[in-house]
Amino acid sequence: xxxxxxGWCPGAHRPMASGDGLVVRVRPFRACLTxxxxxxxxxxxxxxxxxxxxxxxxxxxxxxxxxxxRHQDLLRALWDIDxxxxxxxxxxxxxxxxxxxxxxxxxxxxxxxALAKAIPDFPDLPEKxxxxxxxxxxxxxxxxxxxxxxxxxxxxxxxLRLDGAAKGWRIDERNAMSAVKDALLWFNATGGKSAGxxxxxxxxxxxxxxxxxxxxxxVTKPLAPGRDNDATTFGVPFxxxxxxxxxRLIQAAxxxxxxxxxxxxxxxxxxxxxxxxxxxxxxxxxxxxxACPGAPFCPQATVETRDLAMRLAGSVGGTLHVSGCAKxxxxxxxxxxxxxxxxxxxxxxxxGTPWDPPAAAGLLPHDLPDLIGTA
Length: 375
Known about the structure:
By secondary structure, this protein is of the alpha+beta class. 23% of the residues lie in helices and 23% in strands. It has 3 domains: 16-86 and 224-268, Sulfite Reductase Hemoprotein,Domain 2 (Sulfite Reductase Hemoprotein, domain 2, Alpha-Beta Complex); 101-211, no CATH class; 285-372, Sulfite Reductase Hemoprotein, domain 1 (2-Layer Sandwich). Helix 1 (35-48) packs antiparallel against helix 8 (243-253). Mean pLDDT is 92; it is low at 1-7. Residues 15-78 form the Nitrite/Sulfite reductase ferredoxin-like domain.
């Protein structure tokens, strides 16, 4: 069976059918949920879905298992709590990553809102394309999935960089959206749509020299679980949260706001004690493990994934990706060890992606511990 690569991600207006119902993706504005919005989402997951919330690698939240005949009711509920764009096309294209330290009215906040307003006027683009506003106190989004990046150069000036390029160009906030639009028009004019993403396009096409004049700040502290500066960042195994556990966290810690970060992380502006299943240890082995829902929850998967990934968590020193099919939804990049489901068995790929040639094929689960231990 060949995996069907959709070329788009589910949204709220445009959900994706899965083995357990519709997957409805919610894109919180500025990647932020108030406590009331988060509690309401938990209630909606229990009323309309399977009682779970999924954090995505691009800082969104998904409700799974939604019945098709209840989708419109769910949309109305999301609108009531200010988690839905009125325009389906805008909602589907509003892929904007935010750093954790923005404050209302600062430049990061203003750039986000300018982007959200300008997106309907941008040219037609592949639907997975997105933006990172990495203009906080220190850069932290350079390894997250985005195609155009607002950053700062070594002197602290605002710059725009296209993903896949080492350098970008200095811009002024007043012309930031016109700079983005120029870059997107160039992307389309040079055949970028066929590549699908900016970094993939730049492997085939040379970037104009005028857009390669300054270097972004180096990342000194990547995003990771832990406690610092009176804040707590949580990781969640596979990004999969029982709604009742998130309710317990919000109420126990008296949270007023949750900020969603790439890599399925949540940051709150207070120091919170450990509460299962949330992880605060940056080196926890489960945070190196990536697995999609797998069978029977995804119709393209032919293997169970997450229970297997949990059993194998201690067997790999680096990253492990267990993918139900060759699409690689849980981790689109390389992993030290990747297991790809194929016709009920597994392919083993070392230092690669689910669609790379395997080092071994046709493996059963009991074959795997010894084999991956040698990776």
